[in-house]
Amino acid sequence: MKRLRVAITGLTSCSGCQLALLNCEAELPQLLELVDFRFFPMACSPATLESDYDAALVEGCLSMPHEQELLLSLRKRSRYLVAVGTCAAWGGVAALKNDQDREQLRQQVYGTDSTAALETFSPLPLNAVVQVDATVTGCPPEKEELIGLLTGLLKGSLPTLISYPVCTECRMKETLCLLTERSALCLGPLTLGGCGALCPALGVPCEGCRGPVPEANLAEAMEIYLQKGYAQEAACERLRRFCPGWRA
Amino acid sequence: MSGSRKIDILTRVEGHGTVELLREGGKVTGARLNLFESPRFFEALLVGRRYDEVAEIACRICSICSTAHKVAALQAVEQALKLQVSRQTGLLRELAVQGGQIESHALQIFCLSLPDYLGTSGFSGLAAAFPKELNQGLRLKALGNMIQETVGGRAIHPFNLMLGGVGKVPQAERLRLIHGQLEALHDELAGVVGFVSGLPESLPPVSALPFLAASGGPPLFGDRLTASGGETVMATSAAAWLHERVEPGSNAKVSRFDGKKTFMVGPLARLKLSMPDQTSERATGALLSSSLLARAVELQQALDRAGILISCLLDEGVGQEPPVAATPASGVGTALMEAPRGTLLHSYVFDKGICTAADIITPTAINQAAMEISLQKLILLMNSAGYEEVRSSCERLIRCFDPCISCAVH
Ligand code: SF4
Ligand code: SF4
């Protein structure tokens, strides 16, 4: 079988989505037989862009012009471009203060008389700039999702975005509901599933790291919060940690 | 021919950086490090957030070091709110940090560094030519992640480590399983250290710089900075002493210390400062390239320490306990610790539970000055070498520091 030629890179990010792939220790040796990591600066040398890739897996959001250039170039060279992780899909934590002036944020950290002239702009998800063929969310995504993504691509298929909330997975696992049983502000009802309700399974409320569920499922979720005495805005505000600018 | 040429992007390191080589008459005459990683302005993002959100957000600075960031941030916030966590929580956090140390060091030694010594392009090359070594590294790395997952709930961005305690306390059964694996890998580690010390020298003899590390606590923890000249700086004055400032050519602030000296942080610095001479002798002389061996020795130490911590937890009887409740208060908290790449500082000010100021100083930011000086030394030593040779040595030299550029810039 022809090996899958992939490019993997991070933009404005923590490298967590790339590390999640490198954390597939058990599967890596076999993956290497099937996948040719042609461009993967974090793990392989040299990092020179080539003419074409079967797929580009891009982590992180966009906040500088050089990233935009790289992204456009990868788009042109790749059959599929996949947004990997919450930053790439929604903006993520880096976009937390997108409602504030970027220059002001810069000055807050670098000072007013700073010598470093930075061409930084408010972080954007990938689909603000290029066509994205598929999205895997999560901060970071689950290892199984990344392996599934690569093995799917080998067969020429793309993953579909999950549309059910984390709550569905809690119910499947018969996990105690933190919202109804403990009145904790758990974002499960509003958040895209796919993690297997990782946090609630350990008794920790979901912080919404996979981004919001499609609009159709929102009304029901809001109803539960109201019943528990939480203002709709309190839950929305929490969810904006990973998906800034989101409105119910 | 004069001018400069940039290495496109440093590879087999975390994040985005480059080295610009200055050339005159066909010779390389100088080198400039440029960390062009995009800043996310974490210190500004955290201002205005509630006390119970700070660590959740701050750990996203970096994935490889997310457990270290999470624990440092939690400690700083708890200090500011005068929150005392249980001994069990302290031991579990320490265990998670050792898990992170194991994962990070195994990744760096086996996947990122080894290709330099064995002449392959990266872990894919290793898989073909040196499957035994790669598999050994992956086994160690997996064990580090198993520890982080068991305690932190997840290897990256460990949500189970919470303000005041942990969400679900790991089961004794699970800890015993890890203990067994630690013991099983223990003997292999002696072999790893031997293997690494037997690798051929990969760099001209660039000497290491004076050392700096956090000390005064259990391994990897502390409340002060200690430098090889004997200086000691308490956590509360550490940020001022590290003296970060913005300089052209880097998106990460550069530490200029007291203005006169330059220090390096990381495995070699920790070994030299924290261990009796005899033991640290094992980490060869005073060359920068012995950083790799120092990392291997630390890997062994981390396995040992994790084993001790688990024994402690099991002896004292691990059990579920709710996190200590926090109330929104005002105060200042500063935590120092040793992340895999060196000294890490998190400092926060709270006003009635709302963060009003944040200061985060990371190992790779601190190491920038040391990296620059080391590059200059290398160029001098490689006086007659051609561009390609210098270029590849510069990359190797930077890898000795195992830079984490997301951390540096944050
Ligand atoms: S989605 Fe999360 S893990 Fe991935 S790059 Fe962004 S912050 Fe890191
Ligand atoms: S439960 Fe929520 S916060 Fe936890 S991993 Fe899943 S989506 Fe993320």
Give your account of this protein's structure.
The complex is a heterodimer of chains A (248) and B (410). With 248 residues, chain A is an alpha/beta fold. Chain A contains eleven helices and five strands. Chain A has a five-stranded parallel β-sheet with strand order 2-1-3-4-5, sandwiched between helices. The longest helix of chain A has 13 residues, at 65-77. Chain A is globular and about 55 Å long. Chain A starts with a strand and ends in a 9-residue tail after the last helix. Chain B is α+β, with helices and mostly antiparallel strands. In chain B, 48% of the residues lie in helices and 17% in strands. In chain B, strands 6, 7, 8, 11, 12 and 13 form a six-stranded antiparallel β-sheet that branches. In chain B, a hairpin with a 4-residue loop joins strand 7 and strand 8 (232-234). At the A-B interface, helix 1, helix 2 and helix 5 of A face helix 1, helix 4, helix 5 and helix 6 of B. Bound molecules: iron/sulfur cluster (SF4) (2 copies). One iron/sulfur cluster sits between chains A (13-14, 16-17, 59-60, 85-87, 92-93, 139-140) and B (60, 63, 156).
Chain-wise SSE layout:
The complex is a heterodimer of chains A (248) and B (410).
Chain A: E1 4-10, H1 16-22, H2 28-34, E2 35-39, E3 53-59, H3 65-77, E4 78-84, H4 86-90, H5 102-110, E5 134-136, H6 143-154, H7 166-173, H8 178-182, H9 198-201, H10 218-227, H11 232-239
Parallel strand pairs in A: 1-2, 1-3, 3-4, 4-5
Chain B: E1 2-6, E2 18-24, E3 27-34, H1 42-45, H2 54-58, H3 66-80, H4 87-118, H5 123-129, H6 131-152, E4 161-162, E5 165-166, H7 172-197, E6 212-216, E7 221-227, E8 232-234, H8 235-242, E9 244-245, E10 254-255, H9 267-274, H10 277-280, H11 291-316, E11 331-339, E12 342-351, E13 354-361, H12 363-381, H13 387-400, H14 405-409
Antiparallel strand pairs in B: 1-2, 2-3, 4-5, 6-7, 7-8, 7-11, 9-10, 11-12, 12-13
Helix pairs in contact in B: 3-4, 4-6, 4-11, 5-6, 6-7, 7-11, 12-13
Bound molecules: iron/sulfur cluster (2 copies).
